[in-house]
Amino acid sequence: xxxxxxxxxxxxxxAQNPDLGFGPQFADGPDINLDDYDNMGRKxxxxxxxxxxxxxxxIISPGSGEEYPxxxxxxxxxxxxxxxxxxxxxRKASVSKAVMEGMKTLKKGEEATVRVFQSFPKPExxxxxxxxxxxxxxxxxxxxxxxxxxxxxxxxxxxxxxxxLGSWKLKLIDFENVELITTDxxxxxxxxxxxxxxxxxxxxxxxxxxxxxxxIRIQLENGQKVYEDQLSYVIxxxxxxxxxxxxxxxxxxGEVGLFVLHPFYGYGDEGNQELGIPPNSTLHYTIExxxxxxxxxxxxxxxxxxxxxxAFKRKEEGNAFFRKKLYDLATAKYTKAQLFAECAxxxxxxxEQLQKLDQVKLHCSCNLAFVTLRNxxxxxxxxxxxxxxxxxxxxxxxxxxxxxxxxxxxxxTEARSDFDSILAREPNNSDTLRAVAFLEAKIRHQQEREARxxxxxxxxxxxxxxxxAKAATSSAATKELTTPxxxxxxxxxxxxxxxxxxxxxxxxxxxQKSIWKRLFSWWS
Length: 524
Known about the structure:
There is one protein chain. By secondary structure, the chain is α+β, with helices and mostly antiparallel strands. The chain is built from 13 helices and 11 strands. The protein has a 6-stranded antiparallel beta sheet, covered by helices on one side. A 5-stranded antiparallel beta sheet has the order 1-4-5-2-3. The longest helix has 53 residues, at 430-482. The radius of gyration is 35 Å and the shape is flat. Mean pLDDT is 77; it is low at 14-34, 126-157 and 490-509.
């Protein structure tokens, strides 16, 4: 049933998006490039264009050190003679974003006059799109030797104009950088107290399946305390709050840290009435990591009695997450189950024990293939399908999911081979029959596209040949008019037998070779 829903969702997306080249309308657009889309399936080119800032500065007095303030840094700055406390990147700060951009270029103690510019870059357009609807430039013979040929992929775009946002006299008195916890700058951290160097786990951080014990206090930006408690979380469990887990995984034993969370990682537009948190509130988490347990490592196991129970347990936990559609947690469980199954010393195991471990790996590989296929991570899907088929070459789930990847990648022969293998065992498999029908429709569409393309090519070649023949005829007629005739005796030639006819003129080998040469040069 899961495969049926997955196939239906893939087909629906393909049919609704003409750029994919799928669906009943079968658009003639290029194949989709997944790098052009974000994680939400939105086209990056359609997203708002962020401005690009540039800074020019005249140094009045140099600063010290080699460090510059970064996003989230708490800085003391003098702006046109007024001293202010600023957190770089804070939208509610007392200075503008342009001033913050200027602050990022200063060292501690540096004073300078900065000018901040803003520009909006224009994305390069594909050559075919740029030339659509416009005529090619005419190049004369005198210009042809020095003409600049544009790139095959893009056409040059004029540099964006810079807009001056303002000029300020800045002095960076002091600053303290912070550590970014997430790449989207949603959480950043400041260490209030370093970790305890006397602990045996001083260099380790909580990892997947670690049981972490910690104290937490939640405050608003104005310092109002909304929550305080001592808790215990198992990293990677369903009950764990994701934002707290991200903070814990960045800490060491005994460390105290202050974490600033963007509203997106807090309670967002809704807030939390129970805790008294208004909508779109930036939260401050103060966390002390009191301790944590190190989970059992797969590399500590070697026997069947050690590896199989751990692998089977995590497979079942992964199945529970999988049924709840918590695919990230399921992936982590399946991956660790495979590691436990792989670490057993296979040469010391019986045939029955090997089969039990292989069944765990087979089950995990098939479900990992489903998750990666759902996320459009096709190369990973092929890896997981191969791992499953190495254990069971006739596994229908692995064959079906690999076949879907091949359909998406236009590997029609391989896709048909996988689907035929399934239908040989289950001729009435509805999911596979739908996939085969879609594959055949896609092949027919491609053949029709190629037929139309070759028709256009031969029409172009035919028109060129007619133009050349007309030019040659005109040249011959002109030459006949301008060349004086000389009367010379003409020797009579013996008549040929009437039954002998000239062979049909299909063009010389040179002419045929010229046609195919032009055809393949156009194709390449």
